[in-house]
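Please check this record.
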Amino acid sequence: MFRGEDGVAGRSSSGPAGHCVGSMEQAWARLVPLLLLLLPGRGAEACSTSGCCFQDPPYPDADSGSASGPKDLTCYRIVSAGYECSWKYEGPTAGVSHFLRCCLKSEHCCYFAAGSATSLQFSDQDGVAVLQLVTLWVESRAENQTQKSPKITLKLHSTVKYDPPSARDITMSGSAGQVLLKWETPARQDGAEVQFRHRTAGSLWKLGNCGRQEDAGFESCLCPLWTDAAQEFQLRRRRLRPGAPGDPWSSWSSPVCVPPEHPPKPTLKFSVEALRPHGRRQVTLHGQLPQLELPEGCLGSNSGGEVTYRARLHMLSCTCKTKSTMTFQLRKPLNLSGAAYDLAVVSQNRFGPGPNQTWHIPAQTHTHTEPGALNISVGADGTTMHWPAQAGAKTYCIEWQPQGQDRNLTHCALTPPQDPDPTGMATYSWSRGPMEQKVCYHITIFASPRPEKPISWSTVLSTYHFGGDVLVAASGAGRPQHVLVKKLSQDSVSVDWTPSPLSTCPGVLKEYVVRYQDEEGNLMSELPVKPTETQVTLGGLRAGTAYTVQVRADTATLQGAWSQPQPFSIEVQVSRLFDLSILLVSLGSFASILLLGVVGYLSLNRVVRHLCPPLPTPCASTVIEFPSSQGKQAWQWASPADFPEEVSLKEALVVNTSWEKGAAGFPSAMCEVSDFPTSSSIPVISLLGGGEPS
């Protein structure tokens, strides 16, 4: 029930009829209090009904004069619920009874018994004059004492208390350190003044003013936004009248929880286990999510101040599926297939998504299947794949790509729901396929009971396949080439070959087999060799026997073709005595040649000495040395008689001596000897003095 400014209860209407009805209701509103005042006194039993009791209160009319008691009485009209008076009480509340007193005139008073409550609602039908000035106060009775509040005088119909905003209708948007709260104006409550108060966890309230609301239909308030803490806001409103004091404030609204502007970023780690036999691997997140401290009014769930964290999964493999991304509640651990994924932990608050933490989970590329689990056949009608069917699988996703190539070259195909064949195998066929001959492909097959959920896929198999017909590949392209034989000893050789093209496909090449046989075709042995090796040693061979050796490459299901026969043999060993005799003959020949050279050299020297004797060297003789005392004399032999012997003309010598100081300071003779032909038969020896020796 509401009442307009004219004080008429009920709904307003327009037009003459509405005006007439309104006038009658206004008249009754004025007459009812007067009639109640004119009624004779009623007993206490008459006041048991609702309404204001026009009798004296059931206690003595006295004031204890205590400083405590009721205070801050306010009375007003509530737009949607009649009238209300509220007050505060200071002091012990045990056994306290409150009475709201109302007087139109000093001699016409009534009271409401409120009990222990500190507020009371009533209507204009309860005997209180709402269009006239009335005086109201509160009397509180405790321990045979009466405490009274200060009196207030007002027209109840003219004093209006607005409603607070509804927290559920408030929207918010934040940016640049401010949050804008906005809500729809309550009906018939325009022109309000709005205040807010806010607090963080463990702090006191802080009051703020939103100002007078001028916009029609909507009200708003710009409040501070904290970057790293959640806040609790409450709002209240009151009516402003020109030239009159403001009406009472509304009660505070329910808490409005505002999260921080920047949610804390998660700091987690993750670990990935190996793929299990059922085709799924466990991904575990380690660490604790950031905990945001909330104010008291925001501790409940879904209060709006909290930060939530969710996991977002994007499946990168099998791009032809209908849905690749999903967001779900963060849980630990996750069970995922062997596909490639992008995993993110996403933070979210009322303002939207916050900072994320992302990881890339690579695809498991190593083989995850038993040999022969995938059967690929190539025929005139196309290519067909067969693999073991999975229980509960509705859809299979097959993808293949050349080994080592970019994911953009990956081919993807989805199979519709199918029942397995009698052998329990699932099938996929295509007439013309992109698989090239002699190319290694990585093939992965996934299965899912719910293809629309990326988290529901599991790995059926992951293997490698050599493109083309397997039989042709093993017999032709997989044949080892360039077999080379090297001799190691008189009974062993080393056999080397180039790797088979099948070795480039992990798991396709099972082993090499090397066999050798003699010239008569007798098989000597077959040796298995690991697929990672391309060399083997053959022992126990016979010298002088011709052999042939061949190599083949086998897969897990088929034997390869033998390489071209490579002949080889080991020469017969010559006797050691013959080798020793050859060595001795060689050494003897060398010694003989050396001895003949030495003898020839010595003989030639003797012959040269007899044929060409050496010339004398007078300077080296002591014959021409003279005492030092005779160094200054010049000797001359004038006649041939001075010489005791004769010298032939051919032996004539001329000796020129020059005197120089020796090492001890004495003169010494320097001689020059030269053949000198002369017509005289007497040789002349002249001693040429250099003058006085110095």
